[in-house]
Every structure is written in C-alpha cells, then in structure tokens.
Amino acid sequence: MPWSLTIGRLGETAIRIHVTFLLFLVWIWAAYYRSGGASAAWEGVLFVALLFACVLLHELGHVFAARHYGVKTPDITLWPFGGIANLERIPEKPSQELVVAIAGPLVNVVIALVLLVILSATLDGTDLTADNLAKIEDPRTSILVKLAGANIFLVVFNLIPAFPMDGGRVLRALLAMNMGHAKATATAASIGQGLAIGMGLLGIFTNPMLMIIGVFVFLAASGEAGQVQLKEASRGLLVSDAMITHFETLGPQSTVDDAADALIRSTQKEFPVVDGAGHLRGVLTRDAMIRAMKDQGPQTAVIEVMQADVPVVEARSKLDAALKLITSAQAPAVGVVDVSGKLVGLLTPENVGELMMLHAARPERGAHPFGRGRAG
Hints:
Blueprint lengths: L3 E7 L2 E6 H50 L6 E5 L2 E5 L7 H29 L7 H4 L9 H16 L7 H11 L4 H25 L2 H27 L4 H4 L13 H9 L5 E5 L5 E6 H10 L6 H4 L6 E3 L4 H10 L5 E4 L5 E5 L1 H13 L15
Parallel strand pairs: 2-3, 7-8
Antiparallel strand pairs: 1-2, 3-4, 5-6, 8-9
C-alpha cells in the first residue's frame, strides 16, 4: 500500500500504518490542546492510540480466523477511519466466510466486556450508564470508560449489513447459504446501497458526517459487487480467451513522435515497447506520451518515458490470476507471452471491462463470452 509504514510483522502478515494516520494523531493532539492544554492533548493521543490497538486486535481476529481455513493475509493497514485486513481471498464456503467476518466484532465484544468488568469493580455503577459510555469526546470521561464505549460502538457499527463493514459480509454469507455467491453479493450490495442512501438522506437533516459515511458505503458496496462480477466473468477462462491480439508495438529506438503517429492511426491507449526478439521492454501510455511530447520533445526515445515494470503472464495462465496483477501491480497493462517469452497479447483494464459487460449481457450464464475454449 503506497504511503504506508511497516511497524511490525505477525508471521506472514505485515502490520502497517498509513501516513495519514500519523497526521490524524497530530490533528487530534492539536484539537485537544486547544480545548484543554497539553495534558488533554496527550490524553487524547493516548486514547486514539489505545482505540486503534483495539482496531488492530479486531483485524487480527479476521486474520486468525482466515488462517484457520488456509487463507493468508499479506498485510493489515491502519487508516484514520479504521483498519483493513488484506485477505488473499474470501473463503469459498459461506459458513467459513461467516466465521471470518464475525471474528473481528467478537474481539471487540470481548474487549468491551473485560473493560466493563474492570470498571464495575473500580467505579460506581452509575458511571457505567449508556449515556456516559457514549461520551467518548468528553474530556471529563475516563479513558477506560471511553474505550469501553468505543468498542461497543465498533461492534454496532461493524455489524451494519453493508459493505465494507463486517455486517455486509455476514449478510452475504447468510444469503449465500441459499443462493449462489455472485447473487448473494449482488443482493447484499443492493441492501447496503439502500442503507447508504438512507444514511445520506438522514444526514441532510441531522449530521453531515452521515452523508460522507453514506457515500463511502455506497461506493464500497458497488466495488464489492464489481469485484465478484469480475471474478465470475473470469472463472474457468485462460488469459488467451480475453487478451488483445491486434495491436501496434513500438521498438526501443522509436521516438515519442513515432508513438504519436501510432496513436492517431489506431484506437490504442497503451503501446507495448518490444525488442528485436519480441520481448516486452515496457509500455508507453497515452498520458505519458503526451506529457513527454510537451516536456521533453517529440524526438525523445520512448524507452526513456515508458513504464518498464510491466508484469507478464503466459497465454495459458488462468485469467483470474492475471486480473489480480492489473490491480496489485497498478500497471497500465499486463503483457501476455508464449513459452519462449515473446509478446503475443495484452490485457488492459479497458478490455477487462468489456469482458464484464459481455458476461453480464449474455443470456446463458455458463456460455463463454467470446465463444472460444474454456480452461480445463
């Protein structure tokens, strides 16, 4: 994840903090300092740090539950708005996804119960009313009371049945027990989008923050549905089934001016740069071409302005694995090569989108969208 700092590892899982989280701590310190001075500022930072320790434990709940089913978690990233455990994949069985999804909130339930037991032994019972537990921002409320209230809030908030909250995944797992995974995702996403619209409308008349949360939830639900649709569209296909085979290439000695000519006479936005043996050296995008034309001149060699770290896959590889490369590598395209390493095709976000549209439009859901062979 760009702009994130690795602060430790737990087995195969890297624990990272996004730099915006550090800026968030600075903002918290300044906000508390203005209202209560230096002591209040450091107490505010301590509370946020302890809160995010609970968030980290929440994410570790997901991690250990996923490990039980053989699912790896490359990293956990802490953001100002919470934590994200980057699971390698979602368990295929609905019952397994249900366990993984519910494991995080259960961690917060345990933390809240432990804190409430400690507080009940040290404070007057009247201090543990729902009203006091809700006063997270009140500087007069003790840190432990705030922390107990925050964990209760995390449980309730995360169980909202909408992506990306755990409640959305719980809902999908329950629905998937009686319908297909793709249909369950679409149904859960629709429910989440409906709740997001309701949050937005409620925020107009109450708290504007609800409008922001509503937009975030709506987009997250759309993204989750899109990912599953892409997975379904690529299921059982080879890279050769979806790759572009008719495209123009540039040589290492080609100039930006040559690339501009190719841009005019074709509909391409990404131009592979190949050497004399047909091996991929990099990809020149339309934006990089125009930028180089303006800043460095038309006679600049394309090899100087192309993106060199472009992943490649063999034509007989599974399509779903190649699609992950487009996202994880943040590359403009993925090169497709034969057994000798010669470039024979391209995968781009654009033709992947076309694959998804054809998958959604075809009347027979089991039919191949391009009418070619399926992977064995």
